[in-house]
Structures are given as C-alpha cells and as structure tokens.
Amino acid sequence: MQYILLSITLWFSFVGFTSANETLIKASVLDEQNNPIKNATIHFNGNELKSSANGYFEFVAPKNKQTTLKISKKNYYDRVHTFNHTELHDTKEKRLPFVLVAKKNKRVMLAFGGDTMMARRYYKPHFDHPVLIKDESQLEDSKAILSHVKPYLEIADFSIVNLESQIAHNEPEERAKKFVTFYSKPKMLEALKWAGIDYVTLGNNHTYDYLDEGLDSTLLALNKVNLPFSGAGFTEEDALAPYLTEINHSNFAMLGYVGWQGSSKIKQTANASQGGAAFGSMENIVDSVKNAANLNHFPIIQYHGSLEYTSEPTGVTEQRLKSAIDNGAVLAIAHHPHVTQGIELYNNRLIAYSMGNFVFDQYFSSTQQSYLLYVWLDNDKLHRAEIVPLYIKGYKPTPAVGNERNSILKRVSALSAKRNTLVENFLGHGVIQPQSNNQTSESLHSLDISKDSVHALTTNWQKTIHQVKTPNEQIKYRLGSNLINGSSFDSFDWFSTEDLGFSFDKDNTSLTSPGYKSPHALSLKVKNQTMFGMKYFRRVYKASNPVTFKTHLKTKENITVNVYWQGRKSRQKLFDAFENSPKHLISSLKLMSKDEWQKIEVDFNSPRIGYRSYRVLIEIEAKDSQVFLDNFSLIEWQSAFQIGEVPNNFNNETRIATHIGFNQTSNTPVEIAFK
Predict the structure, then answer these.
(1) pLDDT class of 132 with cuts at 50, 70, 90
(2) Sequence ranges of the domains in the chain
(3) Residue 136: helix, strand or coil by DSSP?
(4) Alpha carbons 529 and 224: distance in angstroms, whole number
(5) Angle, CA 185 vertex, CA 183 and CA 191 arms, to 5°
(6) Does 477-640 carry CATH code 2.60.120.260?
C-alpha cells in the first residue's frame, strides 16, 4: 500500500497539477525500428522518470524556461535534447518519439565540433562585456564556457574539435607576420577533456601563428594532458602522420590538413626547414589516406579550407574531399568558413563542408549559428548522422532553440538539398540517413496577411518554398532573412549567459512577460531619451540591397521613435566607427499611448560599397515612460518583389530565407507550398 501511495504521489508531482505556466508533454522512447523501449531513464530539469512498458512517459515543461532531457538505456546510446516552452507547447497533442540508437559490436558514435579557441576576447573583452576567463580561475572559467555542451559531447564514443589556436602560458616572443594570431592558455585543454573531447585536429591556419616556439608549447601541452592530435608537426612526415586509435573494436586513422601553404611572407605548413600544419594538397591527401588504409585503419579526414563567411565550398575543397573519399576515406569533415555550409552524401559516405564555430569569440551574427555533428559508423559504413544546432551565445556554445534553431537547420537543410541530400526533422535535430536523397512530399501552409506584410517562415525548415499563391496579381512577394540573432528575446537570459548582440542601458532594461505573440519581451524605462539596437556592426551583408527594419513596441505614454543606421567604412578602425561614424536617420515615427502592441516597419537600402559593415539603432524619446520592445529584426531581402507562383532567382539566399514579405496586405490568405 505504501508503494502504491508513493507512486501516485510521484505521478502527481510530475504531471498531475499543471498550471498556466506549465504544459504537460507526452512522449515515448523507441528503437530505430519503432519498437517501444521500457524502463528507459529520463532526466529532465532535475527530475527523473522511467518509460512504461509501452515506452511512454510524460513530463511537465515549465513556461519561460528551457527543458533539457537526457534519455538513457543500457545497450543504447544516450540522447540529449533541449527545447523552449513554445516548441513543446506546439507539440502537446502529439507523442514525441525519442529514438535511441542501439549499441553493437564495431558501431561507433562520433561527435564533431567546429573551430575552437579560447583566446583574445575571452581574456580581454571588448566594450563592457564580462571577462570570461580570469587568470586566477582559468580552469573553472574554461569549463563554464563548455558546460552547456558537455552533455552533448560526453555521450559519444569519440568527440573531436578543430583546435584553431596555439597553446602557451604567455604570448610567445616571435609572432608570424600575419594580421591575426591566436594563443590560448593550457587550462583550455583540460576543460576540453573534461567536456568529453577525445582528440583535436591541428591542420589549420593558426597552428603556426607563433612559429616553432608556439608549436613546441602546443604539442607539449597536448601531450601533458594526454589529448591526442594529428595534422601538425616539426617535419612534413610528422605533420601528415595519422593518429591511430581503436574505438569499439574498429580501427580508425584521424588525419588533418590545411588547404593552403601560407603567404609569401610566411609559410604555415611543415616542410624541410620548419614545422607547421599538414599541407592538404591533392597528392598529400591521396597518399596519406591510402597509407592509412593500408594499415587496416578506416581513414577519417578533416580539412581546413574554402573561403570565410560563404555558403558553398570552393571547387578545390570539394574536389579534395571527394578524392579523399574515392581513395578510401570513410568520412570527410571540413572547416574554416566560420559559418555553416551543406552536407553531402557522396558514394553514400558523408562530407560536411563546414560546421561553423564551436568555441570562438567572433561577435557578428552570422558566425554565432553552428552545429555539432553526430556520426554513427558500422565499421566503414554510415549508419546515421545527426545535426545538433548550436547558438554561440556570449562566446559560449549553447543548444539552439526557437528562431536560432530554425534558422540553422533551414540553412543547412537547403544547402544540403542542392547536393541531393535530405535532412529530416527529428525533434529539432537534423537527421541524415544512408541512401538519403532529396525526394520530399509537398506540404501546404495558409498565411494570414490581413494585418502584416512581413512574416517569419517558422514552419517546414526542412523544406524550401515551392509555390506562393497570392490572391491576385497585384499582390507581389519577396524572400529574405533576418540578420539579427536573438530577435525575440525568448532565450535572452538562458544558460547563465548574456546575449551580447544588443546595445542598451542595463540599469533601465529588464526582461518581461509576455511578449508580442511570444513568452518574452524587454522592458525599457525611458526618461527623455534612450538608445537601443545592434551591439555590433553586421559584417556579412549585401551592399545596396533592400532591407526592412521591423519591431513591435507597447508604450504607456506618447513617444517618438527615431530609426538610424550607422556604418563602419572599409578601412575604419572598429572603435573609431562606434564613436565617430554618423548615425543616418531612416525614419522618425510617433506612437500614441496604447495598451496593445504597435508595429514599426521601415524600408531602406543597405550601404553601398565602401562600407565594411553596418548596424541599426532606435532612439526612443519620451518624458518619462515604460516601453516594451519585442521582435527586433533586420530583414535583408534576397529577391525583388515578384508575381508568379514559382519563385524566380532561386539562389542560395532565397532557398534559406526565413521571411516572406508582400507589397500590400489582403484579407484573403496566401497559400504557400513547401517541398
């Protein structure tokens, strides 16, 4: 009897009394054949549950908070997922299927992260940002940076990142003659191991930043903490040598390369007269892959190449990666662009062209959206791959949710579809199955444009727009993407990390609920005037291009809102631009006191050539008022207004569009087909 009462008490404590701030979520644990898994352990927000005999479980998702679930069962790989409340609330009528991958002999689960360093602004931040790594607490602080992705890394058999920094206690005396050099403190390596990293590749353009002295201190530090590596050395032979390892009774050879030798001033690759990174020439890649295969090890290559901030790999990168596969590599992973690119199944072996950043201090928006890549291999055969979206929030990798998740997966899915590789939706992760192709069914979505002409495309990230049916030919449409991360403020205070993308008066700004059709908004106390806007200049943008600034405000007093753009010229220093660049008035609008949200929507053109980057700011003028702000967005249009059901100029940018805009509103809905 006591056991029954205890069970009932536990049941009601988890699911019995949901309030308006909670949502009851139904879920199940399944294997890959959709068979239920009973007695799986589910950890979420400090609670623990077991799945029933039919694999079912239920949990309560709190409003205005994230929910992270870890699901474990003996003889299966653990699974970790993070959601915001809106994502879970939208699925409350469904039973979410958490699929576990079975462990078996010679099956391995690999986890890959992108470009990684803890240098520069981690110790000496810009502006008023907090110091993330203090000298007196280096290890503790370095672990804190990785704490939110540790659960995702440690569930893999073998986790890997690209170490794009030399390691030294202090900056080495001699520096390579290049514009940007990195060195990170040795405690970073201990933190990487603590978080679950098992190996690093050194085949990149920052492995020789401080010449032989820096390379020597890097290799000594790696050996001291017993963190394996390859891709660099003091001779060409050492640099090209693989790291050989056994994972779950399968033998693998880890190879790393950089795609170019360096400039005329300084070489960055190992040769007869100096150390450095392994040069990933076609000849070197083919020979080293063949040599590794001849050692009865499955070669996995990592290649650092292509161009920064681009959507597609260069032809050289693509050919070298495919040649590696042709000559025996079982998997090819690339990096360097600092932004995400597509994934391709080539001869049923996976090529990831860029995962973006993993731990990096780049502050402009396009570099803050990335992903972890899980790959399950059965010997040399691809069993499954999975994309875990990441948002680099305040220079810390965190699980991406909401709009950030949607934007990341939309981009990777669309760029992969061009390569006939299908990315399927699996509870907010992207899944690629072997023999996957780009055959998808069509789905229809009805869009109400009666009150608003600009809409976010928050559904069907795994599909692209196939048709747009407007009520008549007078209504035209265009496609675009939001250039500002964190626009909705829904995860503004999550993961104990500041969202560093906005400039505002911290003493007079706070998070409030609810927002405009969302859980959160910002509350600004305005006396006379206050400025709010993008903290940084947007570096990756199209010059002389139509853009729309859009936000929603609610005010208790009459206010004036002035919208500005400010640019940084091509040769202008960053802080000089912040302090001295003129603010160009786009529009001045008056808002009346209303107890409802009011829209501000302003069209203008981005700066012409001559500017390196720009940002948007608003100035709010009021005698003494509380103003609520939400959905602070800057939408760059990737196509002109057009008529016709099938979008034209269907380039990369329109395929990954996150917004659709219309030249006028209509009481008749627009029908959008995704495929």
Answers:
(1) very high
(2) 2-99, 107-432, 477-640
(3) helix
(4) 56
(5) 125
(6) yes
